């Protein structure tokens, strides 16, 4: 059996987050990596979509860390490739107050270096979707922390992530972007 190798372009820590715009339910256009709420960094969480119960659980867990993130200067947004209608119906299962964006295109997913999957059936969803990704973008628009997974079972543990961002943001620690060796 011969296996054909496929390569994808992955973003690297220390590189600029590509300019990706999508929409909030209000219809407002939002650019990923551009913080709000007085923060100068942004945590961008890419999730698979409404069909993924692990994503629903993770998003609801993140809500519990929203204030702690904001206290360290890190704003928060989550985005998927779901349609507006899919996001609206997903809200019934979500208890979050941070912005949720929709409509991430396959081309935008590729630009972010995400793994992309096709649905297993029409009951799952009706479009290709991004597997989980997480980008922490600093005040210069540079990727400070990156985590990309090819399945929904592997994601950063949230308390460790929040504690780590607090450590990184503390100027006394002078902590550089890690993983920069080429």
UniProtKB/TrEMBL annotation:
Residues 11-167 form the Thioredoxin domain. Gene3D superfamilies: Glutaredoxin (3.40.30.10). InterPro entries: AhpC/TSA, Thioredoxin-like_sf, Thioredoxin_domain. This is Peroxiredoxin-like family protein.
